[in-house]
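Changelog-adjacent note: as of this version, every example in the card shows the full chain rather than a window. The one below runs 293 residues end to end.
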Amino acid sequence: MASEILDGRKLSSEIEEEIRLKVEKIKKEGGKTPHLAAILVGTDGPSQTYVENKVKACHRVGFESTLLRFSESISQSRLIKEVTRINEDDDIDGLIVQLPLPDHISEEIATETISPLKDVDGFTNQNYGQIIREHHGLLPATPNGVMEMIKRYGIETKGKHAVIVGHSRLVGAPLGLLLSHEGMATVTQCHEFTEDLAKYTRQADILCVAVGKPGLITGDMVKDGVVVIDIGISRVEDPSKKRGFRLSGDVEFDSVSKKASYITPVPGGVGPMTIASLLMNTLKASKLRNASQ
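Full-length structure tokens:
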């Protein structure tokens, strides 16, 4: 069986073009240009790259963007003041505080300080809790990106058995809720310490993996025709590469792709869809705020 690749790069480009045309129309009609702000603390390489990619995406679709960089030594109180200042800035529609943060700063306090109306990452408890409502707020970016990918590729979820490996607050748990409530799937939530994990993964019609453990899922752990969404991404040492490492997902692509009907590559699968989802959330936040004003 030859798997069809779930091409996140191609799909995200299509979504960006749709957003660009909507922003163009907003500007022509004299409306406010959506504005996304991002806070980056420290010099973590992957975080810098990720935030810079978000800024570039904003420029591609015609958003305004602001990137605020702070040293790793910034105090928690100072960071909270910056978040509060942006909450009160009517020109800014969306705010991202890039994780991880230094150990002396509480990620929960930092993210909970973000106004739910500007929380385009969907991290706040209010937005998380609204997942189970029919009319929800700003959805968590990565799970929403996965759902958008599934929808646009026409993958049936209603009545299917979706198995999620990973139960994190940011990805696995909210994705399970979305697949159950929005996708009408039967959901089994696992994690890397689930006993006899393969017993569950072999039952999956749709298998989503978000653990951060390279090669956790192998070909003998899935059934023929499964849809595989690999959300994990890790750096693996590889002397043959110029950078000295390669990016690896949680799924052993070569063996699993021989049995899957659809599969995401890493990189180029879920990653671009997360950024597309952030753009979708920023546009939605801008519309909601303008309507309320």
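Structural remarks: The mean pLDDT is 94.
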